[in-house]
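Researcher: Let's continue the batch. This sequence belongs to Thioredoxin domain-containing protein, and it's 253 residues. Same format as the previous ones, please.
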Amino acid sequence: MFAKLGTKIALQRAGLGNVKIPSFSNPESSSSSSKDPNATGEGFTNPFANVQWPPKAFSSWQAPPAPPTNVREPPQIGDRAQSNIKLKFPTIDARPCVVVFLRYCGCPFTEKLFLALRAMGNRNPSVRFIAVSHCTQAATDDWVKKLGGAWNVDVIVDPNRELYALWGLGVSNWGHLLNPRNGYNQILLGKNQGVWGQQVGEGGSRWQTGGAFAIDERGIVKWGKPMASVDEDIRLDEAVRALGFGDTRTGVF
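Model: Same format as before. Here are the C-alpha cells for Thioredoxin domain-containing protein:
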C-alpha cells in the first residue's frame, strides 16, 4: 500500500497525476491481456498508453512504436549471435565482444553502466566493447560527449530498435519500470557515486528493456541476458571473464 502511495505521489510531482496505476495480478490468470496491443508483459498494461502528452516533456513515457521486426527470444549461452548489417558476428577483426544495449540516454543506471563499460574497454584492448542506443544520433552523440567521450567503446545508434528486437529486448512492463525500489536505488546512486542522470535523450523510451552480452571470436554467445530490472547491477567483469580475459578491474586507467 505504501509503495503504491509513494508511486502516486511521484507521478503527481512529475505532472502525471491523472495516470491510473494498475493493480498487480497473477500473470497466469492474465493471459488475455497478452493479446492487448498496449500490454507490456506479464499481466501488466501500459498505464500511459492513452495519456495525452505535451510535445516533448513526457514523450519518453509513451509506449514506443513497434520495431520493424518481431522481438525474438533472447539468445542463450552457446547460441550463435544474431547478425545484422549494423552489428555483425563474427567481427571483421576477429575480436570477442561485449555488447551493452542501453535503456536510454539520460537514465542514471545507464550512465553508470556506460562508464563501467568504457573503463573496462580501457583495460582490455583485446576485447571490442559496443554500446547500442535507441535515441537519435544527435541525442546519443550529445550524451556521450557530456560523459567525456566514448574512448574505446564503439557506439551504434539503432533508433528503430531493430537490433534490440533481434536480441530479444522488447518493451518492459509496469512493474519493471515503476518499482519503488528503482527510485530508492537511484537516490543512493546519486549520493554515493554522484551519478544523477540527465535529461532523456530525444527518441528515448523509458519502457525499452536493456541487456548485455559477451560474444566470443567465433560469434558464440558466452554470457549475458536482458536486464531483469531497471536498477540491475550488470557485472561486466563476468562478461570479460567469460571471454577468457582476467583483467577485470574497473578503474579508469
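Researcher: Any comment?
Model: Confidence is low (pLDDT under 50) at residues 24-44.
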